Amino acid sequence: MLAPEPAAPGSLYAKRKSVFPKAVDGHFRRLKWAWMTVTLAIYYVTPWLRWDRGPYSPDQAVLIDLAHRRFYMFGIEIWPHEFYFVAGLLIMAGIGLFLLTSAVGRAWCGYSCPQTVWTDLFQHIDRLIDGDRNAQMRLQNAPWTARKIARRALKWSIYLLIGFWTGGAWILYFADAPTLVRDFWSGHAAPVAYAAAGVLTATTFVLGGFLREQVCIYMCPWPRIQSAMLDENSLTVTYKDWRGEPRGSVKQARQAATPLGDCVDCDQCVAVCPTGIDIREGPQIGCITCALCIDACDKVMTQLGRAPRLIDYATLQGCEREKAGGPKESVRKALLRPRTLVYFGVWCAIGLALLFALGTREHLDISVAKDRNPPFMVLSDGSVRNAFNVKLRNMESRPRALEVALSGLPRATMWSDDMARAAAARELRRTVAADQSETVRVYVIAPAGTGAQDFAFTVRALDRERGRDTHTTHFDAPGDAQ
Amino acid sequence: MTKRIDEATGTQTVGHEWDGIEELDTPMPRWWLLTFCLTIVFAIGYVVLYPAIPMVHGATKGLWGWSSRGELASDLRVAKAQRADVLHQIAITPIQSLQGKPELMKAAVAGGRAAFRVNCVQCHGAGAAGVPGLYPNLNDDDWLWGGSLQAIEQTITHGIRQPGDKDTRTSLMPSFGRDALLTPDQIDDLVSHVRTISHQETPSPSSTRGAKLFADNCAVCHGPAGRGQRQFGAPNLTDAIWLYGGNREKITQSLTVAHAGVMPAWHDRLDPVTIKMLAAYVHSLGGGEDFVQPAPTQPQGGAAEPKALAHARP
Fold first, then answer.
1. Which of A28, A156, B94, B253 is deepest in the core (most CB within 10 A)?
2. How far, in Å, CA of A180 to CA of A9, rounded?
3. pLDDT digits over A369-397, tens only?
4. pLDDT on residue A360
5. What is the pLDDT of residue B306?
């Protein structure tokens, strides 16, 4: 620990300065509105989408069925042993963020991050209830009169309502949505449903309503990682200081001895910023690159008849070139470069590999566990018997007729514990219920003199779709095992 | 030892000084102090409600009277109540009808497996494979006293050679050598015969002499062909299974000093339902006799539960 400098006493703690972003309109604001609608719609509507999977499986399009250990996503059903698909999706999401960051900087933060989307929504509620920036500031500083209390109560109730709607939508991903909604309100849902809805209501209320940009600046690790991933070719929101400086109002510019820059120091870029920073100080951790300052500045520049995009999406390299008098770089050139292409290639490769694995996976599975105690059994006629637990897995959402057969081990036959030994044969038939596993206890019997050897159980579907699977195991016999 | 206010921070020092290094008396953060006080309040409540203060014998009981043994007892009560219905069903079902009810049979086998691990593995082994020369293997298809469900239930209930139990399985093979009922040469001829009928030796003059001796001395229990008789627990001598060994030396030993294995009668140690479940388990090991094919059941659909119920809970 460093000793505190005696010359500069005081606390390192800085109290939060409340942010009251001003309403703004422009290209990026409209893009954000559209994207916010899409992302919120995806979140709230997805659990209500239906997907017919026949009579034996749930018909919710996206369902994480923890109770039955199944993950449904439209036409795809994932069993616990196929969790690598989910791992693959998570890796794709990670590399997708790398790709996005190296290409368009912190676009995830600015447009798609739930924290940004919900904060944006809540800030809009603020403007709706309390008025725009100045009115909000006045109300903040006003004493607690009845009117202010009423306003605050109304606003926070709306926060809470949105929070509850958000937390409520979350639990719908884990159970049949219409049933759960009915159970939820009639008090019959599982306690974990109420707890999860409560926790997510609280986090939405607190993170979206009050913590807001502090989450991005102090709590989230992603901005820190991103700042390490950005390079001189990444698009960031940049104030073109060589064009704007020295700044001054139109009046000051008229009186100045030397010509001033384009920036009229109107502070509109600061007023509209949802994280309350000044972009003119350069790239910084608080900038989520939402580009609302571009909209605000463009409006002012257009009013003054000056060229727009004093604040713009630009790369560091592009800025250097432009500063030296070069042409403005094309966005396409900023996007198509080795680094982004490599990320894109890796991302696509994983995606294709997952699709390939998904398309070629077996929906029928056999696994065999051999009895080891006793490893074999000599019967009264001298024949040798081994016992196995054979597990048949039917991953289709319909019952399937299956045939289990011995391959190898000539002259051996088998029977199971729910049939008479007299009916022993080389094949057994079983119908396995839809989307289920069934364990069959199988006794394999081979004539006296059969030696220990490997053999296999093969399962074959008897329906039109066919499909087969094999599991190699071992047959123990006296002589070698003793 | 002079307490003074530190200029840089405005905090009082503790008054110690080591080579010019002083320590600030920074107060605990408010939230920390509050949490600390809350833990004290919690501890007081805990001490009052739960067993906490150790005494010479035991500890204080606490107002709620909680104990880990009490918790176990209540868990066991709950488990027992959950099983009560199935156990009752097994109790009222005659053992020969169990196989007709696959679900009940499955439950009985599971219960029997648990009871077997507690009561039977000491002799018969964890895999029920027995011990050669001592305890029979229960997996195979050779039964001394019968391998149907009823016969197994009877054997477990009344045991083998248990004095005082009139229904116990009992018989006694003479010790032909020790009691000088047969000469060593005659015993040798008998061994030849027994090994011939079990296809371990080819017929010889010795085995021919032995056949005569067998008819006179052994056939009454083991049957004229040596296939055994279960009412006497007399083993089949023609098959491949030898509890006490099938080579010349072992058979000679058995003829000289006869074996008479015993097993406890379990009716005074286990309840009838447990015995029934044990019989079902032993019968299910692969060698059970008089198998009854259960009626074919409808293939169960889907997750075996109605959709709405199955997916109602997160």
1. A28
2. 57
3. 999 989 999 999 999 999 999 999 998 88
4. 87
5. 41
Contacts of A372 in chain B (CB under 8 A): 127
Give the per-residue pLDDT at B15.
86
**Set of chain B residues whose Cβ sits within 8 Å of the Cβ of A379:** 140-142, 240-241, 287
Which are the contacts of A464, defined by CB distance < 8 A and separation ≥ 6? none
pLDDT at residue B1, as a whole number: 62
* Three-state SS at B181: coil
More confident residue, B240 or A332: B240
Half-sphere exposure of A281 (CA within 13 A, CB side): 9
Looking at the structure, tell me whether residues B194 and B141 fall in a common domain: no
Is the pLDDT assigned to residue A2 strictly greater than 70? no
Q: Which residue has better confidence, A44 or B7?
A: A44
Angle at A267 between CA A261 and CA A273, to 5 degrees: 125
Contact call for residues A171 and A185 (beta carbons, < 8 A): no
Q: Are residues B130 and B158 in the same domain?
A: yes
Q: How many CB atoms lie within 10 A of CB A85?
A: 17
Same-domain pairing of B125 and B149: yes
Nearest residue in B to A398, CA atom? B302
Please write the tens of the pLDDT for every residue from A413-452. 999 988 888 899 999 999 999 888 999 999 999 999 899 9
Asked if A176 lies within 8 A of B312 by C-beta distance, the reply is: yes
Q: Which residue of A has its CA nearest to B21?
A: A3
pLDDT of residue B90: 94
A to B CB pairs, distance under 8 Å = 129
Is the model's pLDDT at A4 over the cut of 70?
no
Residues B100, B232 within the same domain: no
The enclosing H or E element of A90 equals helix A84-104
Of B127, B241, B299, the CB nearest to A378: B241
A6: DSSP letter: T
Determine whether the interchain pair A419/B236 forms a contact, defined as Cβ–Cβ distance below 8 Å.
no
In a domain, B62, yes or no: yes
* Statement to judge: residues B63 and B99 lie in one domain: no
Task: Provide the domain limits for residue B108.
Answer: 93-169+262-283
Would you state the pLDDT for residue A283?
Answer: 85
Instruction: Give domain status of residue B251, yes or no.
Output: yes
Of B221, B256, B291, which marks where a domain is finished?
A: B256
Could you tell me if residue B292 is inside a domain?
no
Counting the structural domains of chain B, the total is 3
Q: Which residues of chain B have pLDDT under 50?
A: 298-314
**Domain final residue, candidates B241, B256, B271:** B256
Nearest CA in chain B to A437: B303
CA distance B305 to chain A (A): 9
The answer to whether the CB atoms of B286 and A6 lie below 8 A apart is: no
Q: Does residue B247 lie in a domain region? A: yes
The confidence score (pLDDT) of residue B297 equals 55
Cβ-nearest to B286 among A57, A193, A385: A385
Q: Are residues B247 and B266 in the same domain?
A: no
- The answer to whether the CB atoms of B307 and A55 lie below 8 A apart is yes
**Cβ contact A179–B300 (<8 Å):** no
Confidence of residue A16 (pLDDT cuts 50, 70, 90): confident
Q: Is ipTM beyond 0.85?
A: no
Cα torsion A110, A111, A116, A120 to 10°: value is 110
A180 to chain B nearest CA, in Å? 6
Same domain assignment for residues B58 and B42: yes
Q: Which domains does chain A have, with CATH numbers?
A: 27-82+110-219 (no CATH), 364-475 (2.60.40.10)
A175: nearest CB among B125, B300, B312: B312
pLDDT at A10: 62
Q: What is the 3-class SS of A353-407, one letter each residue? A: HHHHHHHHCCCEEEEEEECCCCCCEECCCCCEEEEEEEEEEECCCCCEEEEEEEE
